[in-house]
Amino acid sequence: MNVKHPILVCYFEDILKDAIHFAEGVARIYEVEGPAPTAKDAQVREFLEQYGIRWFTQFEQVMQSVKEYNGYSLFILDIMIESDSLNGLNLIEKIRENKEHAGSDIWVLSSFTHFEERALKTLKANKFFSKSKMDEMLPALKERLLGGEDRRRLHQPYFVLQEGKRTVTIEAKDVIYIESADRKINVYLFDRNQMVPRIEEFYANLGALTSIMNQAAEQALDHFLMIGKGCLVNINMVTETRKENGVYYLKLRRIPKYLSIGRSYRTQAEEIFGRKAFE
């Protein structure tokens, strides 16, 4: 099951009953049967994964996941941790330092309610819930899962790109174009906060671009056009078409150069933009 994971939960106490309690809450939200009270750790994690939730119990696990995956829009964090003098407050600081998650929401779920003011005012967490009253968090979580931003993100078309253990999820609407050469994939992304594109770079296998094309087909993304053997363009980003010395060109948002269209790809370009666009 290919599911995005917009939510990360970290309980620093590795207590299975807490994970089961949380999973039971998710089950009530979706009106499904949750894990059995005797469920094993792997079963609980698998259940949560179905609904886009990853469960961790160690500081290092969270930091590694944040490093490898940029799709989290909500973090639900415990405060207590007994190793290396680190705690959930340190984790909030680290997440806020990560530019990919600077805008993500952070909820604190903790028994240490005297940390609420520091978490909310100093570290800019978005919400604070008492762990002893976890059920009070469920209405807010339900809104995120069923009616809010994360439901939209779960259904937002996206591409998954992988390089070894590194996995990045990219919303299709942000892609300007993707190029492939010598096992290297460059994804040029539109960023409203800067005049140049943001670039994600991967060293992938020879079938990586084919995989991206297949993902586009599976999601019925008909606004992506191949213009060369190793170049996939988002036609919604095209600002200009031209023909020069018999060669077709496209100009894309935030991209200073013109991209040429290969001869064998002209027909589809003409079908999309019209033949007159290249006269």
Considering the chains and any ligands shown, give keywords for the structure.
elongated, five-stranded parallel β-sheet, alpha/beta, Rossmann fold, 279 residues, 9 helices, five-stranded antiparallel β-sheet, 2 domains
Map the helices and strands.
Layout: E1 7-10, H1 16-30, H2 41-49, E2 53-56, H3 59-68, E3 74-77, H4 88-97, E4 105-110, H5 116-122, E5 127-130, H6 138-147, H7 149-154, E6 158-163, E7 166-171, E8 175-181, E9 184-189, E10 198-203, H8 208-218, E11 224-228, E12 231-234, E13 238-244, E14 247-252, E15 258-261, H9 266-273
Parallel strand pairs: 1-2, 1-3, 3-4, 4-5
Antiparallel strand pairs: 6-7, 8-9, 8-12, 9-10, 11-12, 13-14, 14-15
Notes on the structure:
By secondary structure, this protein is of the alpha/beta class. The protein folds into two domains: 7-154, Response regulator (Rossmann fold, 3-Layer(aba) Sandwich), CATH 3.40.50.2300; 158-278, LytTr DNA-binding domain (OB fold (Dihydrolipoamide Acetyltransferase, E2P)). Helix content is 31%, strand content 28%. It has nine helices and 15 strands. The chain has helices at 16-30, 41-49, 59-68, 88-97, 116-122, 138-147, 149-154, 208-218, 266-273, and strands at residues 7-10, 53-56, 74-77, 105-110, 127-130, 158-163, 166-171, 175-181, 184-189, 198-203, 224-228, 231-234, 238-244, 247-252, 258-261. The strands form four sheets. Strands 2-1-3-4-5 form a five-stranded parallel sheet. Strands 10-9-8-12-11 form a five-stranded antiparallel sheet. Helix 1 packs parallel to helix 2 (41-49), helix 1 (16-30) packs across helix 6 and helix 3 (59-68) runs parallel beside helix 4. The radius of gyration is 22 Å and the shape is elongated. The termini are far apart. The mean pLDDT is 82.
